Amino acid sequence: MIHAGRRPILVTGGAGFIGTNLVHMLVLEKGVPVVNLDRLTYAGCHQSICDLEGHPDHTFVKGDICDGRTVRELLFDTRPGAVIHLAAETHVDRSIADPEGFVRTNVTGTWRLLEETRRYLATLEGSEQGAFRLLVVSTDEVFGELGEEGFFSESSPYRPSSPYSASKAAADHFARAYQRTFGLPVLVSHSSNNYGPYQHPEKLIPRSVLRARNRLPIEVYGTGHNVRDWLHVRDHCEALWLILQRGRPGVSFNVGGGEERRNLEVVGAICDYLDRFLPPDRKMDPPIERYRELIRLVSDRPGHDHRYALDTTRIRQELGWLPQIRFEQGLADTVRWYVDHPDWVAAILSSKAAEPR
Fold first, then answer.
1. How far apart are the first and last CA of the chain?
2. Is residue 141 flagged as an active site residue?
3. Across-strand partners of 188?
4. How confident is the model at residue 283, as a pLDDT?
5. Does 164 participate in catalysis according to the annotation?
6. Annotated catalytic residue within 57, 89, 116, 140
7. What is the pLDDT of residue 276?
8. Residue 351: predicted pLDDT
9. Distance CA 155, CA 260 (A)
10. How far apart are CA 59 and CA 75, in angstroms?
């Protein structure tokens, strides 16, 4: 059990999308001190956590998860009571274009963290060693694709379809191997598609909002009938906190929102919310009556999985977790957030590497 006021939690990738939301929740709501390690690549934005500058419970360290010396010194200097590992390359399209970066960060970076954590754990004694946990945050994409029915359980076989999901699958296997071989108290979680504030504009929801605002075609792969289960990032963060607090080492948990939608349906809903929040100006080029006029179906990407969905029975029964944010309200709030935060969008798109693909 991790208690506020004791050792801090080390969060890797804490300036990324999920990491930013998690760090804010831990520091500002749970009263838990956090050491935040992030390399600040295109996906990690310092502006996302700038409001925590000077907060006594937040320590930011710019560093690379693949750098063993950095990770080692950070663990031994800050003496965390737990680690939540979120540092990862996550965008499927980027992994198809350049798989090497995904192998480096997701596979080598995870292995490095496991190895240095194993060394650090050996220096803890008694109850502190017994209470220590390392939570590796994974994805439902490691399981491959589903048909029209059914759900992935925690024991479903791994069948990754993209370089991204293959790299995350490898990271999961290393985590479980270190738990089995070395007794490292590892937990693994698999989440469905996250959405919410601070998500990089290369992902479907923010990308659709920004392209609509700029009167650009909103491109949807294939027929747009691919199905995803949507989970608000706030609900995900609450689940991660519960898993860290009460999960048993060696156990994995599925974290899904139970909100399946076709991609085309999601994009259409985004356009409808924008019609309300930011009605189209007919004097702009091109003149449009509704944002749905901008939707375009384009050639499908290679290896595009048709459907993901998770069986969340374990986390519901063992930890009592339930998602609280319904998709319609969460999506409306998310669209509004991107409309209301143009400065954040400009900051994360300030480099060429950050341009959404």
1. 41
2. yes
3. 136, 252
4. 75
5. yes
6. 140
7. 95
8. 56
9. 21
10. 13
* Continuous segment of H or E residues that includes residue 10: strand 9-12
Residue 238 lies in a domain: yes
Of 38, 57, 141, 305, the active-site residue reads 141
* Residue from 38, 64, 154, 164 carrying the catalytic annotation: 164
Total domains present in the chain: 1
How far is it, in rounded angstroms, from Cα 147 to Cα 257?
Answer: 18
Cα separations in angstroms, 5 against 21, 73, 143? 20, 22, 38
Strand, coil or helix: 105:
helix
287: Cβ contacts below 8 Å, ≥ 6 apart: 280
DSSP-derived letter for residue 148 is S
Token couple for 247? 């999960």
Alpha helices in the chain, H assignment, sequence order: 17-24, 68-78, 92-97, 100-102, 109-121, 126-131, 163-182, 204-213, 233-246, 263-277, 313-319, 327-340, 342-348
Kindly state the percentage of the chain with pLDDT values over 70: 96
Q: Which two tokens stand for residue 304?
A: 């595009």
User: What was the pLDDT predicted at 349?
Assistant: 82
Give me the CATH number covering residue 33: 3.40.50.720
pLDDT band for position 149 (50/70/90)? confident
pLDDT category of residue 42 using cuts at 50, 70 and 90: confident
Least Cα distance to 274 among 231, 320, 215, 200 occurs for 215
Tell me the C-alpha distance between 165 and 144, whole Å: 8
Binned at pLDDT 50, 70 and 90, residue 353 comes out as very low
Domain that includes residue 89, residue range? 9-199+231-258+304-325
In a domain, 279, yes or no: no
Q: Does residue 102 belong to any structural domain of this protein? A: yes
Residue 140 appears among annotated catalytic residues: yes
Distance CA 288, CA 344 (A): 27
| Separation between Cα atoms, residue 192 and residue 149, nearest integer Å | 16
The answer to whether residue 139 is domain-embedded is yes
- Return the structure tokens found at 336: 């509004």
